[in-house]
Amino acid sequence: MKTDTADRLPRVFWIVFAGQLVNRIGSMVATFLVFYLTSRGLTVAGIGVVTTALGVGGLLSQPVGGFLADRFGHRLTLIAGMVATAGCMGALGAAQNLPLLAISAAALGFVGDLYRPAAAALVAEVVPLRRRSYAYGLIFWAINLGYPVAGVSAGLLAAHGFWLLFATDAFTCLLFAGIIALGIPATVDRRPAGGRPLVGYRTAFADFRLRWLVILTCGYFVVYSQVFFGLPLAITGAGLPPSSFGPMWW
């Protein structure tokens, strides 16, 4: 049976899909951050400061990423966000004291998710409306596949040095940026770069359903994030190695 070409997802989608899969497989630093900070001799209070800084940066990341994607184009924002993330990975790995660790973590949290609105909007631009649910489902499948692979791999790499996690994470960020830069033409954005956003956040939050979705999503992630912060502390407190985190999480 021949597949209708109208039902095929476009090449640009598969490039974004491949980039996100590679990036998620390499997402190790944030996942193992508590273990890394423990190995540096930080107290639970110090770990709380650094992880809070990471979260505060992340709180601003996606709203700013959405603005930048509207202002400068989705492709450029995605590439710049990934390159900046790789740079902040290096800064966090090189930080020598608590203030520098907190500042580097905040910077990493801020740039680490700049790409998300741009990637989602890019998919929306190139995939027909009737196929978007399927396309986004595949993207989330790639993310959910990449995370457990990253968790298990990071545990094995950490046994040989946490620097391997930073190097792998930074490399996959640059690889994601390269996949987008080489695989997607600069003309893919339908609206010209530099144009003003068509809809601002004031208009978006006038939608009652969106406000409730944001509140519910925030509550969900408050609980879900304990996997990355509470569970590593429990594992460390029980005297188990970081490699045990990946199988537990999976």
Could you characterize the architecture of this molecule?
The protein is built from 12 helices and no strands. The chain is an all-alpha fold. Helix 3 runs parallel beside helix 5 and helix 4 (74-94) packs antiparallel against helix 6 (115-126). The chain is globular and about 50 Å long. The relative contact order is 0.18. The model is unreliable at 1-5 (pLDDT under 50).
A few lines on this structure:
The radius of gyration is 19 Å and the shape is globular.
pLDDT average, as an integer? 85
Output the radius of gyration. 19 Å
- Main beta-sheet annotation: none
Helix content: over 70%
The shape is globular
Structural class: mainly alpha
Could you list the spans in which at least 5 consecutive residues all have pLDDT below 50? 1-5
Topology readout:
Blueprint: H1 11-25, H2 33-39, H3 44-72, H4 74-94, H5 98-112, H6 115-126, H7 132-158, H8 163-183, H9 201-204, H10 208-224, H11 226-237, H12 245-249
Helix pairs in contact: 1-7, 1-8, 2-3, 2-11, 3-4, 3-5, 3-6, 4-5, 4-6, 4-8
Key terms for this structure?
0% strand, disordered N terminus, 250 residues, mainly alpha
